[in-house]
Amino acid sequence: MLSAESAELVRRTLPVVGAALDEITARFYDTMFAEHPDLLDGMFNRGNQANGEQRRALAGSIAGFARALLDHPDERPDALLSRIAHKHVAVGVTDDQYVIVHKYLFGAMTEVLGDALTPDVAAAWDEVYWLMAGALIAAEARLRAVAGIQDGDDVWRTWTVVERRQETPDAVSFLLRPTAGPAPLPPARPGQYVSVRVRMPDGLHQLRQYTLSGGTGGDTRRITVKRVREPGAPEGEVSTLLHDTVDVGAELTLSAPFGDVVPGPGDTPLLLVSAGIGITPMAAVLHDLVDSGSQRPVLALHADRSPRTHALGEEVAGLIDRLPRARGVVWYEDPGDSDARPGRMDLTGLDIPADTEVLMCGPLPFMRAVRADLLAAGISPRSIHYEVFGPDLWLPQDA
């Protein structure tokens, strides 16, 4: 809990600090990377650095955490903390790095805010930072314990590609088996993701997260990678490398699985909503439901540009057919000769019970629109869970 004195100072200065956070985080990253270039080798996604998403996500999480402390002083923003903790453990963040971040973040605040950052104000925001850092360090320790990770290196394991399948012109699936290492494998739950660490042509390592699209229950893992077509931009460098150079027999370095957007227990109705490559966690969930003989009511909704771009479409349709209480609806912007519904996803006329649990994955504008429709239909916001590819720019302002 934030002390009463600090809470008052944070409340009074939140508008000023919040307005400057984008500039603060930009200066923070520039200074930290200049003095710790090693962090760019296998830790930070330079695609997200280039497009500004990482900076905006950090600013949003700090402001969101501060607002939560002020608005609900007796509660912790567990959804925000859980999302960040899973991302951190998946890239190998260590406890000592919070000290490094603190040094450069508060140095940037001093430079940007100047005289507005009085000693009392700085102390209040310092309290916010360490409350957030302490909660994350504890959450990350719990996640590492569940995954059997003793230190930062234990998060990584080498896997061999045993099958490569071209799903669409822009999406390819890799089926992997562990090359070596201690047993058992870290547990995987449907809906979780892994980090893939690769060495780029310039010698630096880069990480990208890919949702497991299958293989969560045995000794294999499957990821389905969409090529990001941004010529020359770092956003697409890893997916391009995987598409162009990785074939059967190649080895990839994967993290243990993490992510908190997984179906809950019970037999309440389950709604799976996806668009584009957001279908990957839904495929894993459906595989798990089939393997467990689930009788749960399931409605799977998917939107895509056309049948040609619909990755895993036939596989997902086959899984739905194997579930006794499941059905699927597909929308294509260009349906061609298919029997899919034309245009964008529209929930009108669909029977969605009020106690439905919802899992969503896709572009943020798509998920925002669907969430608004679900709320209007009487679905509780606590029942709607979503996964994003990359830094979460939604949760801090929407939690």
UniProtKB/TrEMBL annotation:
Gene3D superfamilies attached to this UniProt entry: Globins, Nucleotide-binding domain of ferredoxin-NADP reductase (FNR) module, Translation factors
Swiss-Prot/TrEMBL GO biological process terms: cellular response to nitrosative stress; nitric oxide catabolic process
Domain (FAD-binding FR-type): residue spans on this chain: 154-264
Pfam families named among the record's database cross-references: Globin, NAD_binding_1
InterPro entries recorded: FAD-bd_FR_type, FNR_nucleotide-bd, Globin, Globin-like_sf, Globin/Proto, OxRdtase_FAD/NAD-bd, Riboflavin_synthase-like_b-brl
Domain of life: Bacteria
Single GO MF annotation: metal ion binding
Reactions catalysed: 2 nitric oxide + NADPH + 2 O2 = 2 nitrate + NADP(+) + H(+); 2 nitric oxide + NADH + 2 O2 = 2 nitrate + NAD(+) + H(+)
E.C. number: 1.14.12.17
Residue stretches making up the Globin domain: 1-141
Similarity field: In the C-terminal section; belongs to the flavoprotein pyridine nucleotide cytochrome reductase family. Belongs to the globin family.
PANTHER family per UniProt: FLAVOHEMOPROTEIN
Name listed for the protein in its UniProt record: nitric oxide dioxygenase
Organism: Marinactinospora thermotolerans DSM 45154
